[in-house]
Specification:
- By secondary structure, the chain is α+β, with helices and mostly antiparallel strands.
- The chain has a domain of 331 residues.
- Helices cover 34% and strands 21% of the residues.
- The strands form 3 sheets. It has a 21-stranded mixed beta sheet, sandwiched between helices. A two-stranded antiparallel sheet has the order 2-3.
- Helix 15 packs antiparallel against helix 17, helix 17 runs antiparallel to helix 19 and helix 19 packs across helix 20.
Length: 712
């Protein structure tokens, strides 16, 4: 170990399915996927200063975030306090690493056909992320790569007693080096020495007789290249293809001031455990717990312990969130703001200019009934399995959570959904109940919002009553809405370069289909109307049409506004933006060789996610979508979902994919033809079920057939 030199900047201080009938035809499955393409990304501009501060410790931890091996240090749930706000942990890095190497994502990345692409990606990542970090921290990646041997844990904990005002929080990072303890000691000593030589402001503090180094740094001290990866600048994804240059983001004066404030970051070693924290108190509590002090741990908290067997047990990665402190923080930071009287008392259209506090919106949505969120990710030879449990007792559910619970009925896909469908979803929910909840939610958010909503409905109803004075729109809707909603998208056309180009069909079940069509026609009077006659005859039925408006912030589609076609069918109403597809459904002629429900592996995969009381089921054919994505990417077309799917991250971590902007590291000209890597892409299924205790979401990505290990 090199001799320690004192710097003027250094001081010492102490301190199986059954389909329900859709009117003679059967149908089934889940919740519609959001379109990832057409909205501006303003994450950096809206990121609160407290989150910006986490870039420093995340940069420190990133140098050691390579899973490896075994454990005398207690597990995370016994080290963290019982008032922990959020945590995520990999209990055994060696196990996680071995599992990851078997994932399709890892095998894809190491396939010879991907070598040129992956090597260039690695080169760019090192140039734009690793090298700036090494220069900034004065350490080598190779010195830190072998250190993680046990748990890797990140937690958000309180930085003060429960009665303290303000709700201050701190970030706590734990890394267990296990049998590489001496190497960890050496790396920390070298790191401190290099920081001193570079003129960094450091001090040493005694915390329960342990030496901890305190680094003073500001968010601005993180290299810009690193900030642009972990907090990428705002971009606008053009729905017509192509990626516009990043829009410069100017911080507000308050944000700029917060980013320049020097803050203390504590890091030190306790046996084989590396501890990094953004405040001193969490370190003190951790050391006391390691010393055997009878301080309540997270494992003792009833809300956490309730998930131990059902969610956490034997999971190579799991996490837990206590949402209520975060909701309280949102309420404090984004409380209700009074609106000018001329807006609240003016014309109904003024509602679009009103502002509403986060607390009121969250309360109306019923988020306050959410007590905790637990999740786990498992990888096996069968595939990746993600489970999320939101504890929201049935007696307390309101708004969105009451609606999500839906109805406990079968939700399998119908025979007419083809095996080559791009996606399919089905939601068993009471239409009348959903409508009532919508009106209640709007009223709770704001009487003005509810009033404008009613004004729009009444305006449409008045037009309909000119033809039939006895027609009542609300009564017609409540009497004709059913308890089933289905959507599916067909296979992509040959040569498609857009994974979202597949035509879709949507079905609303109804005990009175023609009355529901009439109600929808009345509602759609609020939308732009097509030129000419908006209705036509087809096989004894009428097909109606309406133009779909452009969402705020989105650019108009090429060729003008899209047309939505809808018609009454046996058992409900069918809707589609593809007229021929709607006509095919209305004919009722089954030309499919095989339905989705009979596709190889589908039933087995669905069994993994569908439990008792399933309300929602979804299916996505990633293979079919990625074929189009590869073709589009090789034309340098911007598809966010396709870019993220290329990252070597296991299934279920899509949020992580979206949080890292890695497009600049990808040379798309080096991508191989899709046929050479098609074996790595398969399908996924997801389901939602509800119990008296809460709502469970399960997601399963089966291992592609060509990658499955032969049975022993």
């Amino acid at each position: 170990m090199p001799p320690k030199r004192r710097s003027p900047n250094t001081t010492d201080e102490s301190a199986t399915f059954r389909s329900s009938d859709f009117g003679g035809r059967r149908f089934g499955s889940g919740a519609p996927a959001s379109n990832p393409r057409a909205q501006p990304d303003d994450r950096r501009a809206s990121r609160p200063p407290a989150l910006r501060d986490t870039l420093i410790p995340l940069s420190l931890a990133l140098l050691g975030f390579l899973p490896a091996a075994g454990a005398a240090i207690p597990p995370a749930e016994t080290l963290l306090p019982d008032d922990t706000l959020a945590m995520v942990t990999v209990p055994d890095a060696a196990q996680a690493r071995a599992l990851y190497r078997r994932t399709p994502e890892s095998q894809l990345w190491n396939d010879p056909a991907m070598r040129a692409f992956s090597e260039r990606f690695t080169e760019k990542m090192r140039e734009q992320l690793i090298a700036p970090l090494e220069r900034e921290l004065n350490v080598r990646w190779a010195d830190c790569a072998a250190l993680p041997q046990g748990q890797l844990t990140c937690a958000v904990v309180p930085d003060g007693p429960p009665e303290a005002a303000g709700g201050a929080t701190a970030l706590l990072l734990l890394l267990d080096a296990r049998d590489r303890r001496e190497q960890l000691t050496q790396v920390l000593a070298d790191l401190k020495q290099k920081w001193v030589d570079a003129g960094r402001t450091l001090r040493t503090e005694k915390i329960r007789d342990r030496d901890f180094t305190v680094l003073l740094a500001a968010a601005n001290d993180v290299p810009k290249s690193v900030r642009d990866v972990l907090a990428p600048p705002r971009t606008f994804s053009d729905p017509n293809g192509g990626n516009k240059p990043p829009v410069p983001v100017e911080l507000s004066p308050a944000q700029a001031q917060a980013a320049a404030v020097k803050r203390s970051y504590y890091f030190g070693q306790v046996d084989s455990l590396l501890v990094i924290a953004t405040a001193q108190r969490p370190v003190e509590r951790l050391l006391a717990r390691l010393a055997g002090a009878p301080i309540p741990a997270l494992a003792d908290a009833p809300a956490f312990a309730a998930n131990r067997d059902a969610v956490f047990r034997d999971a190579p990665l799991f996490g837990w969130i206590n949402p209520r402190p975060f909701l309280a923080l949102l309420a404090r930071q984004f409380g209700d703001r009074p609106n000018p009287p001329e807006l609240t008392n003016g014309a109904p259209e003024n509602v679009f200019f009103l502002t509403f506090g986060a607390a009121k919106i969250l309360s109306a949505l019923g988020v306050s009934s959410l007590q905790s969120v637990a999740f786990s990710l498992r990888e096996s030879d069968d595939g990746a399995f993600l489970q999320v449990f939101a504890r929201a007792p049935e007696s307390e559910r309101r708004g969105l959570f009451k609606l999500l619970a839906g109805q406990s009925t079968e939700s399998g896909p119908p025979p007419f959904v083809p095996a080559d469908a791009t996606s399919c979803w089905r939601w068993r929910v009471s239409g009348p109940q959903a409508w009532t909840l919508l009106e209640q939610t709007l009223k709770e958010v704001s009487p003005q919002v509810a009033g404008t909503f009613n004004w729009l409905l009444d305006s449409a109803a008045e037009v309909a009553q000119q033809r039939d004075p006895d027609f009542n729109l609300r009564r017609a809707l409540l009497a004709s809405l059913g308890d089933d909603v289905l959507g599916y998208r067909e296979a992509l056309p040959a040569g498609a370069t857009d994974p979202d180009a597949a035509s879709g069909l949507y079905l609303l079940s109804s005990p009175q289909p023609y009355q529901l069509v009439r109600a929808l026609r009345t509602l759609f009077l609020l939308l732009p109307q097509p030129e000419g006659d908006p209705e036509r005859e087809f096989l004894g039925r009428k097909i109606y049409s309406v133009l779909l408006p452009v969402l705020p912030g989105a650019e108009p589609p090429k060729g003008g506004l899209r047309v939505l076609y809808f018609a009454a069918a046996a058992g409900g109403v069918a809707l589609s933006t593809d007229g021929p597809l709607l006509e095919e459904y209305l004919r009722g002629v089954d030309t499919r060789a095989k339905p989705l429900r009979a596709a190889p592996g589908f039933a087995e995969a669905a069994e993994r996610v569908v439990g008792s009381g399933a309300r929602w089921l979804s299916y996505e054919n990633r293979g079919g979508m990625m074929a189009a994505a590869f073709a589009g990417l090789q034309k340098d077309t911007n598809y966010t979902s396709a870019f993220s799917a290329l990252l070597p991250l296991p299934g279920g971590l899509e949020m992580v994919r979206e949080a890292v902007d890695a497009r600049a590291w990808m040379d798309l000209s080096l991508l191989p033809p899709y046929e050479r890597v098609a074996k790595y892409f398969h399908f996924t299924v997801g389901a939602l079920s509800a119990s008296t205790d809460g709502i469970t979401i399960k997601y399963f990505a089966p291992t592609p057939p060509e990658l499955r290990r032969p049975p022993r």
